[in-house]
Each structure stands twice: as structure tokens, then as C-alpha cells.
Design a protein that fits this description.
The protein has 898 residues and is mainly alpha-helical. The chain is 62% helix and 4% strand. This is Tetratricopeptide repeat protein.
Length: 898
């Protein structure tokens, strides 16, 4: 122990310690001022005799740079400044600097446990809410010399303690300390040392019921706090506390007349000093939390996925570490039940898990030894243990139930939907559900899980989801039986699956009945597919009936097909009605057909109406088309307004469409302005369009500039155009450089052409490299063969065509067949045509059909003609289909070679 220093000796001692620190640091005062971010005069006066004691902020800043313990320096500064009465004691009051406190030691709940050899408790980012402003104001008033007290009132884990911790952070830079009384007991420590609290101290009364509610000491502690707040020599101090609502009500409500008043002083000290904190995050807080999550706060991001709907974010964060601890350290039976619940939720079972299901499912999650040690009441004990709550009123597995539905009196009576729960049901904590989805991602549930699901689950969606999960995990027998249960319960997807099985087995009537049940259950059905099969099987009437049933069920594809059939049959009114229904059901191309239908009948008002409908959904092409129609009708003002909508939308595709419309209408200046706008946004297509406009206007310099911009942006077409210009101008070196850039994008034709240029220039090695590069692509081989053919190198062309054919290129096979046919090798020609036809090439199919036809095999010929027609790539003209390019009208082949 030592004698208490006077104000003068304290100031001398303070300056001596600062001077010693400055000497050890090897700094001058100018350097010290720079590093401490203080003014040169402020630092000079802190060391200068005869000047007043420096401020607490200055002392803290200097101590930080000089690596000195700031608490002792602050004690000396307070004595030197006359802020402390030496008679109050010799140890300068309880507490220590705020910077030395870990928030978890002040009972702030950790939001997670970090990884590492020794797990570290972690906090999420902080989301300020309405009460934080009041707390911050209290801390600022305290920093300005006024004593304040606030007690936050809220339910468990609503963020009360964390809010207090965040509010005192600005005081750390002002040299404040913090005292948390807890030894030997909270109440005794507070009563013993409240009289010794110094100015610039935060008194931390977390869970204030332990202090103010103590039957023997609570009133005396309240009196001591009152004295601390009101004594002029002891200010400023900040007293912060937290209380649950039930305690706040107990202390502040007046007792009945004539009854004892055990909390009169506590009621007085709390009057006007409590602040209620909400249980949930409001929308502003949720948005702020979402921003922090997007910036990398994983803890908040995970919490929001679980708590976004109900807003109990702080409760989720506070309970998560304890829930994980309870899971990891649980008994084998409780872990088995939790594993069954985790697997059920991740595989698609609903929130409410029947107790009977969980009990039976848990069995195979136990080891042989744990199973042998089961007691008769193991399940009851496990569920009771899992129902015990942690912070935030969360339990690993809490009992729950579906909320009853309420209907107004006199309303229609309907059969309630079947419930998946019979008997008691439980809900897995959101955090453990999320943890299970990650930790058990690659694990397959044991047999007891599937058996319990089959025995105890009744909801169609639960059964259907588990059937699919079992199938994906190759538990095919369980998948089949669960799917049968799901279908019996009316699960549409399961009904469709079973219908396809019946269909493959040839039971079309049974399949149709199951498809219809799926429709009746309100799910999407494959009735349209079944109708297609009926049509292909030659049953148009049966197909039509199924199409109509699918259409009646609202199937968009069926509605569209029925509309087209009505149109083909000449029933325009019926077609329009079905097109309208198909569009309403989501078939966007139905609107296109509707527009065409109305245009054919000259119903321009109807066309405009449809464009207006599409425009109302924000379809920028429809807006532009509608604007064009208005302009044609002379409504320039209306057209301009719509054009402006397209421009404002900054939709590049729509702007190009609008530019094309203006170009077609002769408004070249308007079109050019729009193309320019799109080009400025970096769209190379617009640059090409602009270049083509300037080409038509014979503005060759402008053409060159635009193609250069497109080429610089990597447009292959522009690169080749510029290369051709340089080649024509004789700049072979410049052309070769541009061709090389185009070739680097993978353009096969350019690779071959570049090889030819190198060959012509005598660079045979470079040419060979490029030819070899092209030879790795069958398409390139065919191109190379065509170039050889055009150059008159017939043998070289044939050799390359054969390489392309061996690589599977149909065009090469067809050309080789034509060569064989011209040479009179009919068998060889047919072989190559057949190989090409096997790839689905329409020209080859026609050639094979012709050869079969000439051989008298009419049936086989018709088959190949039909296959060719089905490709949809041939003209409709019958003569052209039967006598394609390469044949004279009399059927004889045109020689492919000179």
C-alpha cells in the first residue's frame, strides 16, 4: 500500500511516466502527435510543467502509442484534475477499462462457436434498432459529465445485454472503465463497492433482479445506486441493467393498500429509467441485417434464413450455440431421435413430425450396445429432455400441433385436408434442421426410418417426397411402396409416375384413370402426352378426347394444341377462345398466334388490344410494336410516349427492335440514334447494324470505324470484315493478324482461310499447323475438302472428305456418296447415303428413299421419305422433296465433278 498522492504529485507522476515512455519509444513530440492523431500543442502541454492536467482522451491516445497501461495513467489524471476524492479509498475504485472486457464475460450470448483447436465464442454483426438511439444518447450524456441510468426490459435473448455493450463502445476512447459486481455474490459485491465507484465508470447490472430483487439487500442496493447517481462529486457514471418483464412488473407495481412494500426504493430508482426492447426485428432491421449478411456476415445470414418470417433473429443467434451443444453432447437416444427428425426434414417431410414416427424411426440410428441398454421409458425420457428450452425459448425438439382452421358461420362446408399427424407431434429447431441439412447431406437413413415413414406418415406430400428420396438413394422397394401410399393419398406426381408404369405395361385404360386422378387432385398431369401417343397409334378420336380433358383441366400445352386444331378446322372463334385460355395459362406463344389470327381477319383493334395486354406486363417488344402501330395511325404523341417507355427501360433487345422499326419506317436518324445508344452500352450487334446503315449510305470511313470498334470488342464478324478489307487493299500482313484473332475465337472457316494465306505466302509450316488445327473438327475437315474441291484438287478433297466422314460428319458422307454415284458405284453410294441417313441428315434420307424407290422397294422408300419429312428441314413442295439438289428432273444424278 502507498500514501495517496496529492493533485500536484499525481500530475508530476503522470508526466514522468509519459516522459519515460517517450524516451523508450525513441520518438520526439512531433512524431508522437502524428501517431496519436493529436495536435502538436496538445501533446506539448501534456508534458509541460505549469499546464493543467491533460484530458482523459489525450492520456488514452498517448498511452496507446507509448504502450503504457492506461488505467494507472487515468487514475493519476483524475486525481491531478480533482475528479477523485482521495478519501474514497486507496485502490481507485472497482472495475477496469472497457477495452479489457470480453463481452461474453459480461453475459452477452455468443452467436456461434468458431473453429479451431480451442473453439472460440463469436458475435455476429450488430443491427441497431430504435432503442439503440436512446441508449446511445444516454452514453453521450454521461460522456459530457451527466450521470445516467437505463434498464432494458425484454424477454429472454432479445438482445438487451448486447445493446448495452454496443452503447458503451464510444466511451472506450474517453478512458472509461466498467465494473461488473459478481464476487462473492452479485448483490453483496454491489452493496460493498458501490460507494467506491469512481467517475467515468459504467456500472454493469445485467440480470438486475439479482441485485434489486434480493430480499435482504435489494432496497439497500437501490439506495446506494441513487446516491451514486445524485452525488455531485461522483459524476459522471453510467448505470446499465437488464430485466425480464415479469421482474419489472413485480418491482414497479404498487402493492395493495395496507400490504408490505418490499420494493419501494427499487420502484423509485426505476421510475423513468426503463426502456422496453422489442422481441422481433422490424422490416428496417431485417433489411439492415440482410445487407450485413450480403457483406459476409455468415452468422447473420444463417439466422435470417431461419428467422426472416418471424423476425426473432436475436433469439435464434443466442440459442444456436446451446442447441448445437445439446445435440453434440446428447445421450445416444436423444441423438437418435434428432437424427431421425433431421433426416425427415431434409428429405421433405413437413414441420410437424409425429412422435410415433420419430420413436420407431430412431431405432436403427442406435448402436447395438445402445439398443441393448434401452429402458421401457427411453422414448418418454428422450422427448422430455429434447423439449427443455435453451436461450431464446428454443428447444431442440418442441411439442407442437397444427393450428385449427376457423371458418365463418354459414359458409360452405368442406372436408378438411388430411393431416400428416395423429397423436403428439414435435417440431425440430430451425437451427438444428439447417445443421442437419449440411452435416447429414450424404447420409442415407437406415431401414427403421423408411419403415416408420410407411407406417405412420399419412400426408400425401410427405409420402411423395420420401418416395422420390428413397428412389434417388436406390432404396427402390421402399420407393415403390411409399409411392403407392402417396398415390392412395392423392399425391399428383406419384399418380403420374404410376400411370406411366401402367402405360409402359400396355394398360392404357388403367394409365388414363390414374392420369385423371392426378388431374382431379389438382396437379399437373401427362394427359397431353398420353393423347400424343393415342394420336401416333392411329386413334385420333381417343387423342382428341384426352386433349379436351387436359384442356378442361387447364393444361397450357393441351389448350394450345386444341386451339391450333380449331384453327386448322376453320373454327376461328373456337381457336381464339382456346388461344386466350392458353395465354392465360402461361403459353406466351399463344399470344403470338392470336395476333396472327386477328391480323388475318383484319381485326386491327384486336391486334392492338393484344399488344396492349403484353405491354402491360412490361414486354418491351410489345410496347415498341404498339408504338409503331400508333405512329402508322397518326397518333404521334401516343407513339412517342410508348417509344420513351422502351428507351427508359434500357432493354437493349427492345431498343434494337425499336431501331429496326424506325429503319423500316424510313426514320434513319431515329434508328441510328437508338443503335448508337445500344452500341454505347457495349452491344457489338448494334455496332454492326450501324455499320450496315453507313454502308448503305456509302459512308466507308464510318463503316471502317464501327467495324473497328466491334472488332476491338471481339466480334468475329467484324474481325473477318476488316481482314477482308485489308486483304483486298493488299495489306496481307494486317489481314493475317486480324484473321488470326478471328481464328483464335474458334471460327473454323477463318482457320482454313488463314492457312491458305500462309501457304500462298510460302509459310508451309504455319499453314500445315493451321490445317492440322482445322483437322481436329469434322466441320472444319468438310470446309477444307470444299476448298480443295474448288481449287481443283479432287484427290485431296476426296481424302479429306473421307476423314470428315470417319469423324461422323453427315455432309461429308453425302458428298462422298454423290461422288460414288457419279462414278457408277451404286453400292458404294448407297453405303455412304445410309451412313448419313443414320445420323438423321434429311438430304441423305431423301437419297436413300429415292434409291429404294428405284429398286422397287416402295414400302421402305415411303418410310425414308416420311423420316425426311419429319425432320422439318425440307421444303413442302413434293417435287423438290423427291428430287433434291444434285439430281436432274429426270432423276439422273448431276455429276459433282468436272
Amino acid at each position: 500500500m502507498h500514501d495517496e498522492p496529492s493533485e500536484l504529485t499525481a500530475l508530476i507522476e503522470l508526466r514522468k511516466r509519459l516522459a519515460d515512455g517517450l524516451a523508450r519509444a525513441g520518438l520526439n513530440k512531433t512524431q508522437l502527435a502524428t501517431r496519436a492523431e493529436l495536435g502538436r500543442t496538445t501533446v506539448q502541454e501534456a508534458f509541460q510543467a505549469g499546464k493543467p492536467a491533460p484530458s482523459a482522451e489525450t492520456v488514452v491516445a498517448l498511452a496507446r502509442v507509448l504502450r503504457l497501461p492506461d488505467q494507472r495513467l487515468l487514475d493519476l489524471r483524475r486525481i491531478a484534475a480533482g475528479d477523485i476524492d482521495p478519501a474514497l479509498g486507496k485502490n481507485y475504485g472497482p472495475g477496469r477499462p472497457i477495452t479489457e472486457w470480453d463481452p461474453h464475460d459480461l453475459e452477452v450470448h455468443p452467436a456461434g462457436i468458431g473453429s479451431g483447436v480451442v473453439p472460440q465464442r463469436t458475435l455476429s454483426g450488430y443491427v441497431p434498432r430504435g432503442h439503440d438511439r436512446i441508449l446511445t444518447d444516454a452514453a453521450l450524456e454521461a460522456a459530457q459529465g451527466n450521470s445516467r441510468m437505463l434498464v432494458l426490459v425484454g424477454t429472454s435473448s432479445t438482445g438487451k445485454t448486447r445493446a448495452c455493450w454496443e452503447s458503451v463502445q464510444p466511451l472506450t476512447h474517453k478512458g472509461w472503465g466498467l465494473w461488473h459486481p459478481f464476487d462473492p455474490t452479485r448483490a453483496q459485491a454491489a452493496l460493498d463497492d458501490l460507494r467506491r465507484v469512481e467517475p467515468c465508470t459504467v456500472v454493469w447490472l445485467n440480470e438486475a433482479q439479482h441485485y434489486l430483487g434480493n430480499p435482504q439487500l435489494g432496497e439497500r442496493i437501490a439506495a446506494a445506486v441513487h446516491n451514486l447517481l445524485t452525488h455531485p462529486k461522483r459524476r459522471p457514471v453510467l448505470v446499465l441493467g437488464t430485466l425480464w418483464p415479469e421482474y419489472a412488473d413485480q418491482y414497479t407495481v404498487l402493492p395493495p393498500a395496507g400490504s408490505p412494500d418490499p420494493h419501494s426504493r427499487v420502484r423509485e430508482i426505476l421510475a423513468g429509467r426503463t426502456l422496453t426492447i422489442p422481441d422481433t426485428f422490424d422490416q428496417d432491421a431485417l433489411r439492415t441485417a440482410a445487407v450485413l449478411a450480403q457483406d459476409g456476415d455468415q452468422l447473420l445470414g444463417d439466422a435470417l434464413t431461419r428467422a426472416h418470417d418471424h423476425g426473432r433473429v436475436t433469439q435464434d443467434l443466442a440459442g444456436a450455440p446451446e442447441l448445437l451443444r445439446r445435440y453434440e453432447h446428447g445421450a445416444p437416444t436423444t441423438k437418435a431421435v434428432l437424427h431421425a427428425a433431421m433426416d425427415a426434414r431434409r428429405l421433405g417431410v413437413g414441420l410437424h413430425l409425429p412422435q410415433t414416427f420419430l420413436t420407431d424411426a430412431a431405432i436403427d440410428y442406435l448402436s447395438e450396445q445402445d439398443y441393448d441398454e434401452l429402458t421401457d421409458d427411453w422414448a418418454e425420457a428422450a422427448f422430455a429432455d429434447l423439449a427443455r428450452p435453451v436461450h431464446g425459448k428454443q428447444a431442440p425438439l418442441r411439442r407442437t400441433g397444427a393450428r385449427p382452421r376457423r371458418r365463418p358461420p354459414g359458409g360452405p362446408i368442406s372436408t378438411p385436408a388430411p393431416s400428416s399427424v395423429t397423436g403428439p407431434a414435435f417440431r425440430l429447431a430451425d437451427y438444428l434442421e439447417q445443421h442437419g441439412r449440411t452435416a447429414r447431406l450424404r447420409l442415407c437413413p437406415p431401414a427403421s426410418f423408411w419403415a416408420a415413414a410407411y407406417a405412420h406418415l399419412t400426408h400425401s406430400d410427405d409420402l411423395g417426397n420420401l418416395a422420390l428420396a428413397a428412389e434417388r438413394r436406390h432404396r427402390l422397394q421402399w420407393a415403390h411402396h411409399l409411392r403407392l401410399r402417396a398415390a392412395d393419398a392423392g399425391h399428383p406426381y406419384s399418380l403420374n409416375c404410376l400411370a406411366r408404369i401402367w402405360e409402359e405395361a400396355g394398360d392404357m385404360e388403367g394409365a388414363e384413370a390414374l392420369y385423371q386422378r392426378a388431374v382431379d387432385a389438382g396437379g399437373a398431369s401427362d394427359l397431353t402426352e398420353l393423347a400424343d401417343q393415342r394420336r401416333e397409334a392411329g386413334d385420333p378420336e381417343g387423342a382428341e378426347a384426352l386433349y379436351r380433358r387436359a384442356a378442361d383441366a387447364g393444361d397450357a400445352d393441351a389448350l394450345f394444341l386444341v386451339a391450333r386444331r380449331r384453327k386448322a378446322a376453320g373454327d376461328r372463334e373456337g381457336a381464339e377462345a382456346f388461344y386466350q385460355r392458353a395465354a392465360d395459362a402461361g403459353r406466351a406463344d399463344a399470344l403470338v398466334d392470336l395476333v396472327e389470327l386477328k391480323e388475318e381477319t383484319g381485326d386491327w383493334e384486336g391486334v392492338k388490344s393484344l399488344y396492349r395486354r403484353a405491354a402491360a406486363t412490361g414486354d418491351t417488344y410489345a410496347i415498341a410494336r404498339l408504338a409503331d402501330m400508333m405512329e402508322e395511325a397518326g397518333d404521334q404523341e401516343g407513339a412517342e410516349a410508348l417509344y420513351q417507355q422502351v428507351v427508359d427501360a434500357d432493354d437493349t433487345d427492345a431498343l434494337i427492335n425499336l431501331a429496326e422499326l424506325k429503319e423500316e419506317a424510313g426514320d434513319l436518324d431515329g434508328a441510328e440514334a437508338l443503335y448508337q445508344r445500344v452500341a454505347d452500352a457495349g452491344d457489338t450487334h448494334a455496332l454492326i447494324f450501324l455499320a450496315q446503315m453507313k454502308e448503305e449510305a456509302e459512308d466507308w470511313e464510318g463503316v471502317k470505324v464501327l467495324y473497328q470498334r466491334a472488332a476491338d470488342a471481339g466480334d468475329t464478324h467484324a474481325l473477318k470484315y476488316l481482314a477482308q478489307m485489308k486483304e483486298k487493299a493488299g495489306d496481307l500482313e494486317g489481314a493475317e493478324a486480324l484473321y488470326q484473332r478471328a481464328a483464335d475465337t474458334g471460327d473454323t472457316y477463318t482457320v482454313v482461310h488463314l492457312a491458305e494465306l500462309k501457304e500462298e505466302a510460302g509459310d508451309l509450316e504455319g499453314a500445315e499447323t493451321l490445317y492440322q488445327q482445322a483437322a481436329t473438327d469434322p466441320t472444319a475437315l468438310t470446309v477444307l475438302a470444299q476448298i480443295r474441291e474448288q481449287a481443283g484438287d479432287w484427290e485431296g478433297a476426296k481424302a479429306v472428305y473421307e476423314r470428315a466422314a470417319d469423324a461422323g460428319h453427315a455432309s461429308a458422307m453425302v458428298r462422298l456418296a454423290e461422288l460414288r454415284e457419279w462414278a457408277g458405284d451404286q453400292k458404294g453410294a448407297e453405303t455412304f447415303y445410309q451412313r448419313a441417313a443414320d445420323t438423321g441428315d434429311p438430304d441423305a434420307l431423301i437419297h436413300v428413299a429415292r434409291m429404294r424407290d428405284e429398286a422397287g422397294d416402295q414400302e421402305d422408300a415411303e418410310t425414308f421419305y416420311q423420316q425426311a419429312a419429319n425432320t422439318g428441314e425440307l421444303p413442302d413442295d413434293e417435287a423438290k422433296m423427291r428430287w433434291p439438289y444434285g439430281l436432274d428432273p429426270d432423276g439422273s444424278p448431276t455429276p459433282p465433278w468436272p
